[in-house]
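ESCALATION

Customer reports they have been waiting on this structure for their group meeting. Please prioritize. Original submission:
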Amino acid sequence: MTPTLMGRWQTRIILFFIVGLPVTLLFALAWTRDFSDPGFTMVFLVLMTIFLVGMVLDPAYILVQSLRWENDWPFAFQLFFSICEFLVVLALIAADWLPFAHASVIDDPEMRKMLFSHFAVVVTFSILALLGPLQVFLPRWRYKGGEVGRL
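Update from on-call: job pushed to the front of the queue and completed.
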């Protein structure tokens, strides 16, 4: 598939709502078992920040894609740049640039383990959704550059 910028944004929004939020809710409940635990809200805020960082970086991904010979975007790139987005968010937390997370979050081994585990689970389910259900329930999605509503 050769995604368009609008297709990237639409796919990212779909994955955020259909995969990211439910998986994060289940993960947070399983990990913390308490709604008042700071880790419960932290995973949602980190997921939202990764989502926003990805939306901002998507035009750059289109530029990288245009430099490729076939202008395609393999799933290996999707995984690689997802990891890069997560590392950007961790760097923002470490630099103390996010209002909801202080740099001490990264220093706490339990919180760090939770963030890495959460990211791994969400990315795994997102990639699986891209490879299977998304292509089954939105058959034109693949041929229309990732755009959902375009016929």
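Sent to customer with the following note: Residues 42 and 62 are 30 Å apart (CA to CA).
Escalation resolved.
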